Amino acid sequence: MCGIVGAVAQRNIVPVLIEGLRRLEYRGYDSCGVAVLAGGELHRARSVSRVAELDAQVRETHLEGVSGISHTRWATHGAPVTDNAHPIFSCNELALVHNGIIENYEPLREMLRGKGYEFVSQTDTEVIAHLIHSLYRGDLITAVRNAVGELHGAYAIAVLHTAHRNTVVGARQGSPLVVGLGEHENFLASDALALAGSTERLVFLEEGDVCELTLASVRIVDRHGAPIERETREVAAYGGAVELGPYRHFMQKEIFEQPRTIGDTIPATDSFDATLFGEAAPTAFSEIDSLLIVACGTSYYSGLTAKYWLESIAKIPTQVEIASEYRYRDSVPNANQLVVAISQSGETADTLAALKHAQALGHKHTLSVCNVSTSAMVRLTVLSFLTHAGREIGVASTKAFTTQLVALFVLAVTLGKVRGHVTASQEADYLRQLRHLPAALNSVLALEPQIIAWSEEFARKDSALFLGRGLHYPIALEGALKLKEISYIHAEAYAAGELKHGPLALVTQTMAAVTIAPNDALLEKLKSNIQEVRARGGQLYVFADADTKIVNDEGLHVIRMPEHYGLLSPILHVVPLQLLAYHTACARGTDVDKPRNLAKSVTVE
Ligand code: G6P
């Protein structure tokens, strides 16, 4: 998704601006650009290709300057063509980059046309550039502040003006922006990651903040122009580039990192204590009577899985909602409900908005399960639990998902204890099962060669069904999502008991039905569902636990999972589905780490 980098320095900052974009590339984009102020004039380069091509352009044209802004764009308003790529200029005097969506851009555009401004792009962004230009009276930060006061929607922006050498002005509302403090140089970015290598001293801007960066100072004001102080944080964790090592893609690397990331996420303590979730958790956990989980994409599926654990282990009613639905529907608030936001990035616009919506409705108990300690989501919730997946580069989430599952299982057991449903010996048993996960995962990863053999057949399919029951229904949903995201094969997941209510009509000899078959209480029911597909000639690809007695047969292909994992089984069963999607995508030659049209962190709604 869109990324912003800005810098003022006494050296040529173009390499910093390009390197920053490179670090944000994994988030997904379809065009990019950079603008600098040099000799009192704006100069820019834009590309509808990759950042590497932009880099080649700036080297060839010797684009250099001591203040500048750069951007990766993920198209919302207007196709990914050069005219729509940022930075966007106004009258060759002002350059602007923008993340987010401006909802009232149409009336603003008409108003600005009336003032004589010409529009050369289809973007909502051009409206902001011209609006600031029209309000400029010699003071850039005031013009930006007045302009953003007229915007409805979400934005993070960075602005250059020819009359202000060595100055970058930024503003945020609904999209993240962070200031990086250097020695006689200062930086701005939509993600701290972009500034790794330049500085580790960061100031996270809050909603409504407007900032002005010069060589010697950073000034932050609120929407009324009153100066504000924001805490400076040292964030060393962002240093260092992520290396691919022996792997072909980051997604493959991240799948194989899971034994370690899961091990890192399991609390090192000997028992589950509410304080694992924050100082206020013991009181909050004793007050709550139910849970509301909000999330998007893969994180939503971890929430769906957790519902089974929370209701069976902690006996606490749990509702799981797609964040973009919850934020716009009428719901019945309950002050004793714990609102749990699950997010890898902690910046997903819909999840953040759902959280704020819940808070506005009076929900006071909030918890984030998140992979980024400095993210807006963690800062917004009273309680938090950090997953330790490390930086996830592949757009299709893998290790973030399994670490979220670990976190949510810990939450279920902790709440079970608080509510008197988990005894000390059960707690010890759950902890033992968790600690066994890394070793168990290593034996699941050893199934890769068998999965590669399946993926060669899968690569020729147009469509696939994913079937699961109970705890593994959300895992079927996640498996189908993975296949869609990176191989572009249409896939749908069903709770296997629903087959007879519709999807059986799709089953022919060419239909692949991937089935998750753990040895749990629903196994016999699932075996009947398998027969329903076989009887209609469908091709079954079954991941069966070692002790299920499901064996290879005509139309029935079986990969045997090394063990049976009990309640933690979803964390193990999702891994072969990740590998199946990955190898199928490789066989089809898709861009696995940057699938078409998708973004890693979706900071617009
Ligand atoms: C995007 C990503 C998905 C991710 C979803 C939610 O769609 O491509 O992989 O699951 O956002 O992201 P979050 O950071 O909130 O977990």
Automatic annotation (TrEMBL):
Cellular component terms, GO, for this chain's entry?
cytosol
- Reaction equations catalysed: D-fructose 6-phosphate + L-glutamine = D-glucosamine 6-phosphate + L-glutamate
Gene Ontology biological process terms, A to Z: carbohydrate metabolic process; fructose 6-phosphate metabolic process; protein N-linked glycosylation; UDP-N-acetylglucosamine metabolic process
Q: Which GO terms describe its molecular function?
A: carbohydrate derivative binding; glutamine-fructose-6-phosphate transaminase (isomerizing) activity
Cell compartments where the protein resides: Cytoplasm
Repeat is among the record's keywords: yes
Which residues does the Swiss-Prot or TrEMBL record annotate as the active site?
2, 600
Q: What is its EC number?
A: 2.6.1.16
Mostly located where?
cytoplasm
Which one Pfam family would you cite for this protein? GATase_6
Question: What keywords are annotated for this sequence in UniProt?
Answer: Aminotransferase, Cytoplasm, Glutamine amidotransferase, Repeat, Transferase
| UniProt cross-references to NCBIfam families, sorted A to Z | glmS, PRK00331.1
Describe the function of this protein: Catalyzes the first step in hexosamine metabolism, converting fructose-6P into glucosamine-6P using glutamine as a nitrogen source.
The molecule here is called Glutamine--fructose-6-phosphate aminotransferase [isomerizing]
- Whose protein is this, by species? Paraburkholderia piptadeniae
Q: What is the lineage of its organism?
A: Bacteria, Pseudomonadati, Pseudomonadota, Betaproteobacteria, Burkholderiales
The gene that this protein is the product of is glmS
